[in-house]
């Protein structure tokens, strides 16, 4: 039996691996550029499976329009772009890759933290202008002895916490869904969000984007943070109110920010880009050549399991909370 698989993801799915896996079930693969719901709904007409990245909107309307759809594969972790409840209600299985890029994202988070803390981009630009001035990066605080606060404590945050061990850093975390023993195993203290914001020298965001977390780092949250604190976001851009972030930075109420994710993406002409205190990367924390191959193989094999009537390894429960 031949299957039609629609793929709206050319960035993170490894082409040769995808072909090798899907060819095993005689799948016809159609790659589309569609991202908006109306275009996606048209593209999945007659499709058995849909594989998407974070930018493709799989709304309830898309699910309703796809009469033959059996499975949606999310090439990644976050599910905020997929109407999971509507899919499950329609008998469509949703799968993701829960271990995707844990090593890469935790490493990139560490890199952004250090780049902000040590003012690396500022020094780089200064030297390339022909200058040789240590003071252009003032003030710089010592990493050792600082407190890092993790907002959410899933696999990515846990791996980041493990990387912080050995740097003489106190690590605290806020996650209403994670058991305290999981934090304790890594020497991480469980605290309230208010305590985390008030006590942290560096706040690192690891939460998924949900109705509960959307815009959680707003003006009030930023006001609770130290004036020289750093904010690092490798989770979802929608967690942060960028207008409030800009205001906090230019008013001196925040020391700096490292941003890999934005709302929207790409962010366009943002005033944040004019600030030396902000270090940006283009939603690239996920990337390594190894992670692309692992991602593709994992999501494609799970999609095949569903098409064959087998139980997938990574099904999504519509009641799932934070990762």
Automatic annotation (TrEMBL):
It is an enzyme of class 1 (oxidoreductase). SUPFAM superfamilies: Formate/glycerate dehydrogenase catalytic domain-like, NAD(P)-binding Rossmann-fold domains. Residues 23-316 form the D-isomer specific 2-hydroxyacid dehydrogenase catalytic domain. Gene3D superfamilies: NAD(P)-binding Rossmann-like Domain. One of its GO terms (molecular function) is phosphoglycerate dehydrogenase activity. Its EC number is 1.1.1.95. InterPro entries: CtBP, D-2-hydroxyacid_DH, D-isomer_2_OHA_DH_cat_dom, D-isomer_DH_CS, D-isomer_DH_NAD-bd, NAD(P)-bd_dom_sf. Residues 110-285 form the D-isomer specific 2-hydroxyacid dehydrogenase NAD-binding domain. The keyword Acyltransferase does not apply. Keywords: NAD, Oxidoreductase. CDD domains: CtBP_dh. Pfam families: 2-Hacid_dh, 2-Hacid_dh_C. Belongs to the D-isomer specific 2-hydroxyacid dehydrogenase family. This is C-terminal binding protein. It comes from Haloarcula marismortui (strain ATCC 43049 / DSM 3752 / JCM 8966 / VKM B-1809). The lineage of its organism: Archaea, Methanobacteriati, Methanobacteriota, Stenosarchaea group, Halobacteria. The gene is serA2.
């Amino acid at each position: 039996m031949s299957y039609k698989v629609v793929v709206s993801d050319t960035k993170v799915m490894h082409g040769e691996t995808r072909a090798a896996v899907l060819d095993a079930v005689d799948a016809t693969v159609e790659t589309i550029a569609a991202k908006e719901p109306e275009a996606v709904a048209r593209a999945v007409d007659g499709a058995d499976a849909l594989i998407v990245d974070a930018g493709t909107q799989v709304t309830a309307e898309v699910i309703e329009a796809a009469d033959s759809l059996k499975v949606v594969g999310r090439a990644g972790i976050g599910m905020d772009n997929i109407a999971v409840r509507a899919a499950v209600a329609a008998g469509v299985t949703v799968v993701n890759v829960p271990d995707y890029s844990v090593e890469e994202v935790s490493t990139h988070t560490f890199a952004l933290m250090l780049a902000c803390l040590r003012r690396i981009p500022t020094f780089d630009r200064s030297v390339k202008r022909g200058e040789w001035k240590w003071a252009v990066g003032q003030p710089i605080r010592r990493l050792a002895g600082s407190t890092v606060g993790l907002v959410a404590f899933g696999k990515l945050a846990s791996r980041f916490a493990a990387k912080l061990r050995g740097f003489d850093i106190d690590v605290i975390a806020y996650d209403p869904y994670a058991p305290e023993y999981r934090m304790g195993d890594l020497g991480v203290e469980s605290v309230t969000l208010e305590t985390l914001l008030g006590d942290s020298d560096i706040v690192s965001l690891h939460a998924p984007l949900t109705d509960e977390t959307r815009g959680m780092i707003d003006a009030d949250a930023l006001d609770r943070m130290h004036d020289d604190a750093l904010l690092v976001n490798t989770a979802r851009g929608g967690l942060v109110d960028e207008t409030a972030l800009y205001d906090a930075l230019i008013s001196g109420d925040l020391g700096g920010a490292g941003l890999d994710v934005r709302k929207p993406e790409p962010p366009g002409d943002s005033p944040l880009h004019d600030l030396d205190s902000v270090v940006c990367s283009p939603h690239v924390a996920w990337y390594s050549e190894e992670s692309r191959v692992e991602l593709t193989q994992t999501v494609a094999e799970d999609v095949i399991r569903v098409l064959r009537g087998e139980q997938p390894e990574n099904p999504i429960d519509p009641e799932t909370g934070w990762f």
